[in-house]
C-alpha cells in the first residue's frame, strides 16, 4: 500500500514526538516496544503507576504489581503467551501460581478500538485467572515440547472474563 507524502511526514513527526515524550519521562521506556504504548495508556486510564521494566509486572495498582492484557478484537479477551515450561506439571503449577499468574493480585483486560483507545476494561483477580487458565494449560502441558514454539499459552475468553471479572468500563 502506497502512503501519501502527507501521511508519511505526519507519522514521522508524531513518532518522534511520542518517542521524545516518553524518553523525557523517568521510567516510562520505549513506547514502541511490544505492547508498551497500550500498557502506558492503560496505566493512565486506571490511574496506576507504570512498571519501569518490560518484563514482569505491567503496572502498579493499590494492591501492588498487576498484569495488563490488551486486545483489539471485536470481543474482550486476554492471551497469556510465551509461558516458560518447567520440568514437571507440579513445578509448572507452582511457577504459574507463584511467579507468573498468581503473583499478581489483579489482572486488567482491555479492549482497544482504533483511534478510540480503550473502550472496555475488566478486572479479574489472580486467583480467578488461575482458576480459568490452569486447566487449559495443564491440558496443553504434555504436548507443548513437541511444538515449534515450546512454550505454554492460553486465553481468557469473553465468557471467562464476563463470568469472573468486574467491568470497569
Describe the structure.
There is one protein chain. The protein has a domain at 55-167: PvuII Endonuclease, Chain A (3-Layer(aba) Sandwich), CATH 3.40.210.10. The longest helix is centred in the first third of the chain and has 19 residues, at 5-23. The chain is α+β, with helices and mostly antiparallel strands and 169 residues long. It contains five helices and eight strands; from the N terminus they run ααββββαββαβαβ. It has helices at residues 5-23, 36-45, 89-100, 126-141, 158-164, and strands at residues 49-50, 59-61, 64-71, 78-83, 106-112, 118-125, 152-156, 166-167. It has a six-stranded mixed β-sheet with strand order 1-2-3-5-6-8, sandwiched between helices. A two-stranded antiparallel ribbon has the order 4-7. Helix content is 38%, strand content 24%. α3 (89-100) packs antiparallel against α4 (126-141).
Amino acid at each position: 500500500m502506497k502512503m501519501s507524502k502527507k501521511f508519511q511526514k505526519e507519522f514521522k513527526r508524531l513518532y518522534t514526538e511520542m518517542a521524545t515524550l516518553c524518553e523525557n519521562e523517568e521510567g516510562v521506556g520505549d513506547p514502541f516496544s511490544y505492547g508498551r504504548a497500550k500498557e502506558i495508556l492503560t496505566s493512565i486510564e486506571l490511574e496506576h503507576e507504570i512498571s519501569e521494566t518490560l518484563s514482569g509486572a505491567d503496572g502498579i495498582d493499590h494492591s501492588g504489581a498487576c498484569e495488563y492484557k490488551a486486545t483489539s478484537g471485536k470481543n474482550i479477551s486476554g492471551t497469556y503467551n510465551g509461558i516458560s515450561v518447567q520440568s514437571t506439571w507440579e513445578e509448572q503449577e507452582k511457577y504459574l501460581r507463584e511467579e507468573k499468574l498468581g503473583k499478581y493480585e489483579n489482572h486488567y483486560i482491555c479492549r482497544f478500538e482504533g483511534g478510540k483507545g480503550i473502550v472496555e476494561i475488566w478486572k479479574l483477580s489472580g486467583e480467578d485467572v488461575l482458576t480459568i487458565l490452569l486447566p487449559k494449560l495443564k491440558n496443553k502441558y504434555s504436548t507443548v515440547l513437541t511444538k515449534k514454539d515450546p512454550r505454554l499459552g492460553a486465553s481468557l475468553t469473553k465468557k471467562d472474563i464476563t463470568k469472573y471479572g468486574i467491568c470497569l468500563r
